[in-house]
Amino acid sequence: MVRTMELTIVKMDRQGRILIPAKIRAKLQSTIFTLEVNDNELRLRPLKRIKLSDLFDSIEVNVDDFTDTHKLRKALLEGG
Q1: Are 47 and 34 in contact (CB under 8 A)?
Q2: What's the rounded Cα separation, in Å, for the pair 26 and 42?
Q3: In angstroms, what CA-CA distances link 79 with 17, 53, 69?
Q4: 3-state secondary structure of 54
Q5: What's the rounded Cα separation, in Å, for the pair 19 and 8?
Q6: Are 13 and 20 in contact (CB under 8 A)?
Q7: Which residue of 24, 42, 55, 71 is most buried, as measured by CB atoms within 10 A?
Q8: Residue 70: exposed, middle, or buried by beta-carbon count in 10 A (0-12, 13-18, 19+)?
Q9: CB of 72 within 8 A of CB of 63?
Q10: Cα(16)–Cα(43) distance, rounded to whole angstroms?
Q11: DSSP state string for 11-49
Q12: What pTM, to 2 d.p., does this model score?
């Protein structure tokens, strides 16, 4: 596997935002990223796109009524 590297210099604005150029965003095809901070280095990695329905069988929540969003949110935050 041959990996290519492209270097682009961008400036951070006063709010701490960094603009990712459109041609790079098109290649990445993702809007969700992980940001890793290691010493003085930032590493930004795109997460692959998944459908929300892919997660349905992987999350277990003990809630009787899913229409009660308060109980659902509490169960999700408490882990069960």
Answers
A1: yes
A2: 21
A3: 32, 19, 15
A4: helix
A5: 11
A6: no
A7: 71
A8: exposed
A9: yes
A10: 15
A11: -B-TTS-BPPPHHHHHHH--S-EEEEEETTEEEEEEPPP
A12: 0.48
10-residue mean pLDDT profile of the chain (80 residues): values are 82 93 86 88 83 69 80 76
- pLDDT recorded at residue 58: 65
pLDDT at residue 36, as a whole number = 92
Structure tokens of 45? 């990695």
CB-based contact 48:32 (threshold 8 Å): no
Among 25, 44, 22, 26, residue whose Cα is nearest residue 35: 44
> Going by C-beta distance under 8 Å and a sequence separation of 6 or more, which residues neighbour residue 45?
33, 34, 36
Encoded amino acid at 1, one letter: M
